[in-house]
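step: validate -> pass
step: tokenize input -> pass
step: predict -> running
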Amino acid sequence: MTHAEIPIACTLSAEERSAWQEGMGRTIVEGYEVVRELPDGYALRFPGDDAWANTLLEFVLHERSCCPFFTFGLVFEPNHGTIWLHLTGNEGVKAFVEGAMLRPGGEQEQPALSGV
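step: predict -> pass
step: emit ->
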């Protein structure tokens, strides 16, 4: 199955999704500092400490199994700077992220020239 053929749908049951929203989902949604729109998704900026690095890796490892339509990226800024979580994919990914993860009225930046 090609990336474009993977449906934009979470495979968690309603009960599992509710638990995710109260646990890891809440941690991620409440924890990002800034969101940046990308051509094919979003980048969320987090503090650069090791606790966040571990949390974000745990998030990606879990999400790979229930949301296989995502392409994930973790970008670590130099000198223990911020960490960017990239959530990208084919058409429909932006709308999914907007509905599931972005805080209404949250701080947004314009895409950076560097592509971060």
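step: describe -> The first strand starts at residue 34 and ends at 38.
step: cleanup -> pass
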